[in-house]
Amino acid sequence: MIELFDEDFDAMELVEGALALNQAINPETRVAWAEQKLAAMAREAEEYLSHESDKKARLAAFLHLFYQEWGFSGDQDAYFESRNAFIDQVLEHRKGIPVSLGALLLYFSNQLGFPLKPVMFPTQFLIQIAWHNEDAVYLNPFSGEYVSRHTLQAWLIGNKGPLAKLKPKHLQVSDHPTIIGRWLALLKSALMREEHYTLALKCTNLALTFVPDDPYEIRDRGFIYQQLECHQIALSDYQYFIEHCPDDPAAELLKNQVTLLRSTAVVIH
Questions:
Q1: Where are the beta strands (DSSP E) in the chain?
Q2: How far, in Å, CA of 46 to CA of 52, rounded?
């Protein structure tokens, strides 16, 4: 597996970091094709905007190009499918989730000189647009629509409860390692849901290079190994979680799995 570290992601464009992540999980990711496609689309965008000189009109025209002419959109029908988190597949199918569509917007905006920044809002990925001497506004990359602070407050209440209040920390610009970490978690969940356990295991092993002792990641790895019938390793991972998180409700459930696994013959792969 490719070894990736925080400093690697910090040095890359977000979409480049996502492609590196995608390839680390699935070597069949078409990185070269995606890079060529991105470069060609950036040139097309430059030409499309060549007649616009006003900065805000240029951004509005670019968003029209991205969502209307190129046809990118949020995948309403299959939001949780893993293809929406693989950049090459998003470029091919023109559908994605907020973080993958947002990464594309950021890539093209960097090429075109727009003041766009990534924000990991508690409910989803957002794009901050901060013109000089103006208050920042926020774009939902899933829909291409601007989001008011009233709407953000409502999203936060829906996520954290009726007493939640929108605070500056919720709208801070996020660094690339934080975003890639969330992206990795989304990919792992999607691959587990689709029962692509070998690829999901790569996600977990990659996550554990960043947080080697995370009991929740080790618990998930145990579940994946159990599905792959590597029962002895699954048993070890479950025991680790139970020892380190004894008060977690999942610990009691996993004790039953430990009992079951102890009675199961070890399968070595």
A1: 73-74, 95-96, 116-120, 125-129, 137-140, 145-147
A2: 10
H-type helices in 85-161, by residue range? 87-93, 98-112, 149-160
* Residue 96 C-alpha from the chain's centroid: 10
Query: What is the per-residue DSSP string for 135-147?
Result: --EEEETTTTEEE
The tally of domains found in the chain comes to 2
**For residue 122, what are the CA distances in angstroms to 60, 169, 179?**
26, 10, 12
Q: Is the dihedral of CA 24, 29, 35, 41 positive or negative?
A: negative
| pLDDT tens per residue across span 187-239 | 999 999 999 999 999 999 999 998 999 999 999 999 999 999 999 999 999 99
Residue 241's Cβ-side half-sphere holds a number of Cα atoms within 13 Å equal to: 25
DSSP 182: H
Question: Does one domain contain both 149 and 218?
Answer: no
Domain that holds residue 160: 6-171
Q: Taking Cα atoms as reference points, which of 68, 65, 15 lies closest to residue 45?
A: 65
Q: Across-strand partners of 138? A: 128, 147
pTM: 0.92
